[in-house]
Amino acid sequence: MKLLNQVIIIxxxxxxxxxxxxxxxxxxxxxIVLGRGEAKxxxxxxxxxxxxxxxxxxxxxxxxxxxxxxxxxxxKVNVLINNAAVQFPAAFNSDDFNYDTIQSExxxxxxxxxxxxxxxxxALGRSGNNDISKSLILNINSGLALAPKRSSAVYxxxxxxxxxxxxxxxxxxxxxxxSVMQALMPLVDTKMTQGRGTNKMTIVEAVDRLISGVEKGxxxxxxxxxxxxxxxxxxxxxxxxxLMKTT
Length: 247
Fold this sequence. Notes:
The chain has one domain (about 5-245): NAD(P)-binding Rossmann-like Domain (Rossmann fold, 3-Layer(aba) Sandwich), CATH 3.40.50.720. It is about 45% helix and about 15% strand. It has eight helices and seven strands, in the order βαβαβαβαβαβαβαα.
């Protein structure tokens, strides 16, 4: 799929990987960004001409509201990029763990994705054409979907769930006007990963590979070291688990 002259909705587009995607795609597409920061959305609009919607994806009522607003304004949508995610690395048995973050992590990282896919499916279906090109749901995932690490148990679980959801939804929509892809990211040098890990991939390279994967039609795009992790997981799940446990 060529990301050119498309109507594209992206969540979490005000920072990190999402922001880099917005910078690239807003030049030749109509981009709509969903984010929590009103000031950042306004700046994006001024800098790149995108349309911004302030929404908290951890609140299901706000997710329903924004989907309704989007359907009114954009009856046809070519691409939905589910990029937004939060991660709270504190362990369950630590003093830093906050009970409220469980709901926030699950709803933001997984429930909102399922909800937006469902609620925006009519608009995606209207823009796709089985004979020419399909519209696209692209879920930004993580290598942690394949093998979890010790910390961030809820985050790892949401990414594993997103992997399963993406594949199952792809099966369901196989004969429709909508295709489903996911990009499984390695450790990327973003604000979320500050102070954690080494040898991180740059945001620019990660987005290069993401866009290339979409244009090549790679359904499960294992970016960087994720390809090695998938291979190792098939060869020796025990070894992959041991490796990721202390990552």
